[in-house]
Each structure stands twice: as structure tokens, then as C-alpha cells.
Write a structure and sequence with these properties.
The structure is a single chain. The protein has about 90 residues and is of the alpha/beta class. The protein has one domain. The protein has four helices and three strands; from the N terminus they run E-H-E-H-E-H-H. Helix 1 links the parallel strand 1 and strand 2. The protein is flat, with a radius of gyration of 14 Å.
Amino acid sequence: MARILLYCMNGTGLGHVIRILAVSRQLRKLAPDTDILVLTSSENSGILLQEKIVSVKITSQETVALNQNLPIRHLASALTAQVFATF
């Protein structure tokens, strides 16, 4: 069984998420037993859940800008590395 990790970094728009959604749908058609995981910073990642696509959401750049005093950028980097290593 194949495992595919899709990386979708964006903020408040839907453009990247819609493209990832199209790719995921096609992958499911071609290889139904493939495990798909999406790593995203999109604030609109709920659309993936509607299609039963598993995703891990990390902090978007918009949130990082709002919280300058928190180590959010380092946390996002650590979470990204952990998702890649684990999946």
C-alpha cells in the first residue's frame, strides 16, 4: 500500500486546498487503497474533512504575524518535521 503526503501551505485562500483536493480525488480513483495525508496551514482545511481526507493543520503565516511573542514559527517547523518523519 502506498502512502502519499501532500504539502499544502497557504493561509486564508482556498486555491491550494482546492488543487490538493483534486489531486487527492484522482489518487483515490487510481489507487483506492493509498493512504493520503495532507499537511496544511490553510485556515480553510475543513473542506478536506468533508471529503474524508485526513489532514494535519499547522499555524498559518497570518497567525504567526498576530503572535509575534510566541515561538509559533519554531513549533510549526518542529510539527512539520515530525509529520514527515512519522508518516
